[in-house]
Amino acid sequence: MKTVGIDLLDGKGYEIIKLLQGLNVPRTESICIACLVCGEELTSQDIEKASGLRQPEVSIAMRPLRDMGWIDERNEKKNSYKGRPLKYYKLIVPFDHIVSTFENEVLRKNREIEEALEQLKELSSSG
Fold this sequence. Notes:
Order of helices and strands: HHEHHEEH
Strand order of the largest sheet: 1-3-2
Shape: elongated
CATH architecture of the largest domain: Orthogonal Bundle
CATH superfamily of the largest domain: Winged helix-like DNA-binding domain superfamily/Winged helix DNA-binding domain
Strand content: 5-15%
Radius of gyration: 19 Å
Structural class: mainly alpha
Helix content: 55-70%
Number of helices: 5
Distance between the termini: 68 Å
Number of domains: 2
CATH topology of the largest domain: Arc Repressor Mutant, subunit A
């Protein structure tokens, strides 16, 4: 496991965050996805240091990613018996799969909007 510095999020990472947020992906989820795309297997602490998120924010943001089957989460005991175990996160699907998921959702929503507009046009022309 390599040590992750504050520089985990580079230009690509920040661009991923900005674009995901433009698709209405919650801020914390966008940040966590970008961290996992830019890193390998990361601890919650790695993500906190790189992103400025707090531990509860990371945990909460990871839930929907885990529910989607995008990440693997594992716990590892620290050397001492005190404290919580370290949580490790890793993307288990390619990033393009994640992008496709968002693309399909946007296209579905756009179709619904188009259908609603067509119905409104029909109602407005039927007088």
